[in-house]
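ok new one. same drill as before - structure tokens go in, u give me an amino acid for every spot. 228 of them this time. try not to just spam alanines like last time pls lmao
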């Protein structure tokens, strides 16, 4: 199987409305599409033992008609529950991202090792959903041009994030997390918001959506992000 991905000949053509600025890691509108929009992303899926939080997050997003990217941590696909959860998230219409198979610092690995980390997970995603990930996020946010290039060669757009708080001690309470995600000084047009498969995030996500919407922010559809 080729590492590069080619869409089927009959795949619908979706207009790209946003592109990722690799320097700022902010999304910029293409043409006259709204600039005041953010991308919601969730890492380490499905980290919880019973995987219920990731699915709860996805269901809340779906109820609010809000798109997102769920970055899969391959080692958590060991269980049937993990596999089923990722398939359910995909079937709800959400984009899946590659967060590596074992969550290593990829910058300390050979090019061959990096490719293997990403390919093993993509192969699992193909088995589960019929297609590989279209997005890649490096573990710990640690990357270099070589790692990003490998991801690109494998058909994935590499991205990091603008801000996130749900793993910090001060934000284990859902209300505190919702408040900081909406009131963060780093919130800006094109921001890439990082969250995780966690209980506090599942409890806060509806308030986060409503809070961002009340400020006039829209939500970027991953399907409308240019792969450049």
């Amino acid at each position: 199987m080729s590492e590069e991905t080619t869409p089927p000949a009959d795949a619908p053509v979706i207009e790209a409305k946003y592109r990722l600025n690799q320097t700022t890691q902010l999304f910029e509108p293409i043409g006259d599409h709204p600039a005041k929009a953010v991308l919601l992303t969730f890492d380490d899926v499905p980290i919880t033992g019973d995987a219920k939080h990731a699915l709860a997050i996805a269901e809340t997003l779906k109820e609010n008609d809000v798109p997102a990217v769920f970055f899969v941590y391959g080692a958590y696909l060991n269980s049937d529950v993990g596999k089923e959860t990722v398939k359910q998230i995909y079937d709800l219409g959400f984009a899946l991202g590659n967060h590596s198979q074992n969550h290593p610092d990829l910058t300390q690995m050979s090019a061959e090792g990096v490719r293997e980390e990403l390919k093993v997970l993509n192969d699992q995603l193909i088995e589960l959903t019929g297609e590989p990930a279209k997005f890649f996020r490096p573990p710990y946010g640690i990357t270099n041009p070589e790692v990003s290039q490998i991801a690109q060669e494998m058909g994935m757009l590499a991205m990091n994030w603008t801000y996130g708080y749900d793993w910090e001690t001060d934000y284990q309470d859902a209300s505190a997390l919702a408040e900081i995600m909406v009131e963060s000084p780093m919130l800006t047009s094109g921001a890439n918001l990082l969250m995780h498969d966690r209980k506090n995030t599942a409890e806060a996500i509806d308030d986060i959506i409503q809070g961002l919407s009340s400020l006039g922010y829209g939500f970027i559809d991953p399907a409308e992000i240019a792969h450049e």
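The chain has a mean pLDDT of 93. and btw The longest helix spans residues 111-129.
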